[in-house]
Please model this.
Amino acid sequence: MATSVGERTMVLQRERTPFENVNMQFDLSADRLQLDQNYRDFLKRPVRELLVNVTIKDRNGCLRSFEGYRIQHNNARGPYKGGLRYHPEVNLEEVRALASLMTWKCAVVNIPFGGGKGGISIDPSTLNEYEIQEVTRSFTRAISQFIGPQTDIPAPDVNTNAKVMGYLLDEYQRLHGFTPAVVTGKPLALGGSLGRNEATGRGVMFATREMLKANGDRIEGKSVVIQGFGNVGSHTAKYAHEMGAKVIGVSDAFAAFYDPKGLDVNKLWECQLRDGSIKNFDAQQAKISRDEILFTECDVLIPAALGEVITRGNANGVKARWVIEAANHPLTPEADLILTDKGVHVLPDIITNAGGVYVSYLEWVQNQNNFYWKEEEVNERLNDSMTSAFRNVHEVMVNENTNNPGQKFPCTYRRAAYMVAIKRVYEATKLRGL
Ligand code: NAD
Model:
């Protein structure tokens, strides 16, 4: 497949992998920047890929082995940075895609990190707490010489959380001594930052607020549907509600609820905290099928679960006017084009969900200084950073469209966000003499 594709020449010769899809997004913006081919190849390729054997003794004393990955995509602007995912569908190509997205995300919000990502191909629902801890320790030992506060800094992602980061920190410290900055998203008692747990969802709503504002609209009164009610989805629902939007639909891996009059977000939270799922939310509330959630009537649709849920096969069914990518790569490139053609505004993942890594950066800074900030200070910095990152991307998009009045395909937020990111990583790469 060609490395550079025109905006409308996406002939699907075969299913592309998630990594190829991310690289396609890269190429479409690199075309606009007229980026040199040599640099494209370098910037798309991960610097290092680790494939490790994660073996534990389970609760019955039997050995169980799993495949673990850590992809270090790019470190031109700083240490590799990115989450650690536990999911049965984790595979090399997906982790590559997620690592690459981290490079562009850190550059869009202008923090001094590169991109990386880790994952273990595992179904955590089949493991008990002891086994999760053993898996995390085994994985940490396997990658410990390749991570560190100035090298590569993991964080939580799907099915991992502060507790898991605590196990990772402890195992790393057994080998290397006191090093809180080796991981972010850890418990407060181990050097975590106030505001980190909420940061991604909070950032999603700051970015959404800014996008609506920049387009002469407002978040207050908008109907919002969210797919996924984990860390990102639940906090997004909370802040959407606090900003005056009406949350009318939510789903998780087990259930989906939709009510145009609005759902009780506090009750959803109570249920999630009690059962680890929203499935027992409200027996009186209308349930819909999990897959229907993306195609319900609403103003703002926020996929906040897994990747590639909106594709060329179903994108026409989306009824929202605004699509906010809180999850990583929830749209395939074809779905992105279909929605753009329909006049839907899409806010891309690399800016939408950057609040998490932004506060991870603040956590890392606090760890290095052994000095901790108040939550208001963290939240204020997050607000400032998300607002200025969005405004910068918006300005690039408007300038592109103003300076190219005859162009067949207008510059979108995704095109502009990648342009900002690629330019920054390219500059750092070039200044290193590469
Ligand atoms: P999580 O494990 O806390 O939650 C995932 C949620 O998705 C759960 O509610 C789960 O039940 C739900 N889900 C799984 N399959 C589903 C399906 N088929 N339909 C509906 N819901 C389904 O994970 P998270 O940390 O909230 O991450 C969600 C997304 O956000 C991922 O794409 C992740 O990469 C991205 N992200 C997370 C962070 C972070 O700080 N945690 C930061 C940036 C991006």
Observations:
- Residues 208 and 324 are 7 Å apart (CA to CA).
